[in-house]
Amino acid sequence: MRLLAITCGLGLIVATAGPASANDSVVEATKDPHNWAMQQGDYSNQRYSKLDQINTQNVGSLQTQWSFSTGVLRGHEGSPLVIGDTMYVHTPFPNIVYALNLNDNQKIIWRYTPKQDPSVVPVMCCDTVNRGVQYADGKIFLYQADTNLVALDAKTGKEIWKVKNGDAKVGETGTSTPLIVKDKVLVGISGAEFGIHGRLTAYNISDGKLAWNAFSTGPDKEMLIDPEKTMSLGKPVGENSSLKTWNGDQWKIGGGSTWGWYAYDPELNLIYYGTSNPGTWNPVQRAGPGGKPIDQKWTMAIIARNPDTGVAAWAYQMTPFDEWDYDGINEMILVNGMDIKGEKHDVLVHFDRNGFGYTLDRKTGIPLVADKFDPAVNWATSIDLDPNSPNYGRPERVASKSTFKNGQDFNTKNICPAALGTKDEQPASYSPMTGLFYVPTNHVCMDYEPFKVSYTAGQPFVGATLSMFPAPGSKNMGNFIAWDASKGKIVWSKPEEFSVWSGALTTAGGIACFGTLEGYFKCVDQKDGKELYKYKTPSGIIGNVFTYEHAGKQYIGVYSGVGGWAGIGLAAGLTNPTDGLGAVGGYASLSNYTALGGSLTVWGLPG
Fold it and tell me: Is 207 a catalytic residue?
């Protein structure tokens, strides 16, 4: 096997020869910047493009080139893929996939419409979203709402194989995009709000047969953990590291879903992903012996695994014994050679829902930097990074914001961030031009009242009432920021009226682009955040900005279609302020600015 490289700029991941190399077809497709061949841009999740035809000098001249109606309403997350002369477009439920011919006025080559039981819709926690298809080996991989993973022939749309990954009857659904590594397709599972047993699963690309299955909680054997070789904070996790941190058998309905974005380092041969909240949201019901808090490992954690075997190399828990639904599923962005206090590290950067931006050594999982990426964060003061401290790696919590200490049926006021986090799944981007990360954020706080709830399979297992609102003293509910992950500092911040719920894109043209919940597509200067272009699309934007080149011309595009957790009131017609897990009241005024839609808009320079 020849040496293959992902060459999107300084600091990107380089694939090595031999068995540790990534999937050849994915590497070949992603190293060509004319394509947008992965939802994440590349294996390192940097969402950076080498294309520079559109740049800071001319981006203000962008014009709409074409648009496409998906024929589906509700939240449009993810982005299309572009492989050569074909674009692959996906939709929310019912998860239609279109192949468009870029050489023939975007003519529909084929469409795939899954047959799904609509009963899956009520158990989709936070809208009927899907984060996109992936490509490898001449196949398009679709992970449907009903958890069927489907391999389609990229040229014809014919179904090659299909495998069911979960059971909607117990609240398991599919919303995430797969990750293709070598000869395997990796998929997670959604549904922690229904008390599911979270896991990451690998299937063979060729025939869809199960390769391995790794649970987030439970016995070592089921979690694919080696008690002596799987590390945490530089030490072996030890036998039954998860079981020891749960009250009885609660781990069986303990959540830890895996619906976020995954990254891969071919040199270390490790995949990286995050796990979500423990079930229930009422921490009092999850207390250990004597009513004391227990960690509930490995929910709210980053886990590194070998993609061949699934065995965990290391795990790091950001929010042990979560009391606020601060899922750890947000993307892991990989950067090589970052200078931290005079030493070079190959790092993993993660902007957690809990409001802290983490920079970890991705070989060891040791946290190097951890700081607030929104000053409003008040549930904790800091993360203890002293290896000699008994609280090493853990947050320094603020007692008055503890929903556990304040107790069941007590409404704890003004917790920042809200449950949807300082950032939800909408991915950030890294630019090697500046060495900075460009992060869509939420500037939202909440009141949180836990209550007792019983588990019934397929029924909500939440146990908390929430209300959300802008951070005190602020009118804006979001910011688009530039972040220095080597120092843990905000470099600049651009306020937005509503949360920025769109994935960011950076390019070699010096621009950073994103969308807003009101429906504006915007591009700013990477250096200072100066707004260079904006355009109002037909609906609110929660999709991820992408770029490609065709016939010598660069294009930038994004889905519009309001929804997701922040837009669930609009998407599902909800009006009770505490519905949508507290989001409906917080975003009630969004309906004054946008309406439901489902379209793709593509921009380019004149001529």
Answer: no
